Amino acid sequence: MPVITFEGVTWDYVPGPSLLDLLRRGRVKVESPCGGKGTCGKCRVLVNGGGPISEEERTFLTDQEIQDGVRLACLCYPQGDLEVRPYGEAERGLTVLEEGDMPPISLDPAVSFRAIKLPIPTLRDGKSLLDHLRSCIGVTEASLSLLRRIPQAFRAQEVTAVSHQGRVIDLIPSEVDDLYGLAVDVGTTTVVVSLVSLSTGKVLGSAGSINPQKDFGLDVISRIHHADSDGGLEDMRSAIVTCLNGLVDQVCVDANVSRDRIYEMAVGCNATMESLLLGIHPGSLGKAPFSPVVREGLSLSAEEVGLTLGNGAMVYCLPGVSAYIGSDIVAGMLVTELEEDRGIRLFIDIGTNGEIVLSINGELSSCSCAAGPALEGMNISCGMRASEGAVESVSLDGSVSFGVIGGVEAVGLCGSGILDVLSEVVRLGMVGKTGRLKEGPLVVDQDGARRLVLQKSPPIEVTQGDIRQVQLARGAILSGFLSLLEAKGLTMDDLDQVLIAGQFGRHLSVESLTGSGLIPKELKDRIRYCGNTSRTGSMMCLLSRSARKRAESLAGQVDYLELSVLEGYDRLFARCLQFEVSR
Amino acid sequence: MPVITFEGVTWDYVPGPSLLDLLRRGRVKVESPCGGKGTCGKCRVLVNGGGPISEEERTFLTDQEIQDGVRLACLCYPQGDLEVRPYGEAERGLTVLEEGDMPPISLDPAVSFRAIKLPIPTLRDGKSLLDHLRSCIGVTEASLSLLRRIPQAFRAQEVTAVSHQGRVIDLIPSEVDDLYGLAVDVGTTTVVVSLVSLSTGKVLGSAGSINPQKDFGLDVISRIHHADSDGGLEDMRSAIVTCLNGLVDQVCVDANVSRDRIYEMAVGCNATMESLLLGIHPGSLGKAPFSPVVREGLSLSAEEVGLTLGNGAMVYCLPGVSAYIGSDIVAGMLVTELEEDRGIRLFIDIGTNGEIVLSINGELSSCSCAAGPALEGMNISCGMRASEGAVESVSLDGSVSFGVIGGVEAVGLCGSGILDVLSEVVRLGMVGKTGRLKEGPLVVDQDGARRLVLQKSPPIEVTQGDIRQVQLARGAILSGFLSLLEAKGLTMDDLDQVLIAGQFGRHLSVESLTGSGLIPKELKDRIRYCGNTSRTGSMMCLLSRSARKRAESLAGQVDYLELSVLEGYDRLFARCLQFEVSR
């Protein structure tokens, strides 16, 4: 495949799209006020190897520019390797986005703000303060939270009006430079919150934690059952709300931003997590016919949800597909643009539930499987989430060596670390076909149980039980995607790309994915790791109303395959538990 | 004037309207499905003295019926005295309404309900429970409070859907016969709550109390100031919300109704009370240019306001006119149909604030004055609100005799009792022109202060200070309405009717109004007492969406006269403090 190089970063690409699109996919932001329609002439870049120039493109460029290698990115369709550099004034608009794989979006958040000067009422005008406000901002609903802000606003006179989808939700009694939003992934096991500037789209900080609902059950089914116990639903609801409020505190302190200035939170999560966050009984998700209470995207008052944000702030829950393909997966499809006609692509979100979506030239079908929390570092003796001190990569070649998040002392294993261990023990023949640890240098038998001792103090060990947990997760995901391929009459050879998403931090390696057998080795060159697409997709919806529309449309386009009723599935699952499986 | 007699009750009327309208004004409910359009023929009544029968009316009646004296009330236009009795089947629809002077309304509350049967979801329908619900009830907003009710509703299957203005707000997991609403008057000094059936319009019970905000100031101005103190606004807000929740408890227990079945509260009150109830800082009401934060009618979530009612229940705050002509007065205009062309009418709402509206053939102008809480039984040594044990009438002829609410031992004086005392001391010459108590049989001098001892134990006394308080209230109201008349170039002779509203219970006498000098004696025959029109008008809005529309329209039709800037007002006020005043 040909490659593009930009400021030291190189990525490969499939010819076809314009250079503008290709740069954006490489996370390079190019100013393009006309949206790539070839009318504004602003997306000039310096290109080495861009191929022939069309007549249309020429009309925007001087002879000197053409000679210097300037191209209009939206009208340039490269075929081979090329090097791109910023050009002239446009340079200021070129930035490498900080966060994960996010396709280009127009910065058009649901929340907007503008400075206004309120009039001074007179004795004879006979107007209410709300009437005066409307003379400045146009018709708006008289919500209680807005009414409560009006007296102070009229004392200040120069205020900032904050709107959500055109409805004024707050009046800040001063001028402000920026407002903020939150992109949130509420996973069954882990929760991540990112603070985002609504005027630049820049991520100002992120914080994560274990979902405190784990105390009520490690997977969605046990939590659904717990909702039937006395006070169970409310206990789980308040646990996650308290957790989110705490994470918001953390990102706000770190970024020195007042939480009063946060006006929207966009949330991606599975249907059970959504129900529990909103205090909706999840019972219907736990038994046939597995109906979610709601599938569409929801805009709700943050206060009603229990979140302490800015006055009148909203929560946007992304739309979901079904009980087991939630809004986190819609977020993933949004990020990977899975509805687009770009060959046959497989999207796998590895979490406590594994969800798999197959895109056959944009036609979408899906399945889900219960992987368990092992690959998120839970229910594993030395497991932890991907945060400081977590071992995220492991080599057992000769001696034990770790890559540790934050470069500090290793205190536990996160998902990618556990996958690496599995990959290494398979590679080094330290386990048999069934996953049983063989005797060997690092292997210790103690209290009748066998374990692999990676570090003595603090102890980092992998027990036989831990290996079983990962094996089960692997079996569930592998059998899921093989079933989905088979149902569509496809083989692994037909796949153009395998997109992996999950809470793995930034260092999930292709080697550990294939080495552990989670993804068959033959797909090695087609794997791309996309990071936490639930969070990234939530961020897209936070920042772009058109992304939000795309999400609503995407959610309606996905077919669902129920694995449990599939003939031969149990046999396939049993085979997928074994190592070196192929089909 | 000719009179109508119905089941022992007689009232006079001005010829012009149909008998249907005249009966309704006399609080007689007549079934009339077509709304009085002369098409359904259902409003048959037996009439003695109804005058000639039109050809149109004849087409609905048999010869026998005409011979028996049957008339169609909507097509009968009486001119003289007549006697009306129920007729045939229609008899069942004829009831005398229990509550105050309420003009006819169509029973069309904002809250409606209907039984529905929810479908059983299947594995292959791919719908959410909300989708299924919408297939039964049509498009509706996905509010959080509704979503939380869906799981239980689908378990019950046969449910009652409750709507507010067409938006579904609750799903009750059973069939129900009736739902309820609350008509509320929040006065500066007293609060009254009535529980009303939404399907019959019948009042099921009422409860009242002193407004607990009195601890923060006796009049609106002192409460507005208190809102500036630390926590002051929230203290006052939570005091009135707690009080209302308590009164709702009381009426629900008394009527054996679950508060979960109450879906709307309609509230009439002055602009300051509205601000304090809603937690909106009232500062702008307390200083020029006296702008209210909001004037329009508000539909707010009861939960957001802090009231514990049915799931998704709403609060409707009636529209107001200005800072000092609040929604309580709009309610009063609604009840008295003040915008109609029925001559020159004066409406006076006697409360801690006195508000006066003049209708010149439907053209409305208003003024307001600070009367103080004396006429509501507050700030008076033995004062109390009009409830059990309150002296509501007093005669000092020879000996002291009381009329006591509930027929129990007298424990204090309510507004009408105090007015009666004043009326009596004036009539018997026990006070001078300035209001000073003269020496006499009931008058005692003690600790340098003079007082009238009406009962020894429990002591019921009226001090010289109490008389001053009532005198001030009287002076404020009297000077207010005289100023308003003068501003419009009218004299008392021009007035066709004086409508008195207030929290006086049901026994305010014309004698005490004129005897105390609150209303000049020459208006004696034109006075009509309308009761607590703030509560009654709220009830109309609760029960009728068209009444709500009328209220919104009325609120925009009223001119306001600011007394304090009027030349000669202070002189007039001083004159009005004296007894036997005339102008």
Describe this structure in words.
The structure is a homodimer of 583-residue chains. Chain A has 583 residues and is an alpha/beta fold. The first copy, chain A, has 3 domains: 3-86, Ubiquitin-like (UB roll) (Roll), CATH 3.10.20; 180-317, Domain of unknown function (DUF4445) (Nucleotidyltransferase, domain 5); 343-582, no CATH class. Chain A contains 17 helices and 28 strands. The first copy, chain A, has a 6-stranded mixed beta sheet, sandwiched between helices. In chain A, strands 27-26-17-18-19-28 form a 6-stranded mixed beta sheet, with helices on both faces. In chain A, strands 2-1-6-4-5 form a 5-stranded mixed beta sheet. In chain A, α11 (327-336) crosses α15, α11 crosses α16 (545-555) and α13 crosses α17. Chain A is globular. The two termini of chain A are 28 Å apart. The model of chain A is unreliable at 89-99 (pLDDT under 50).
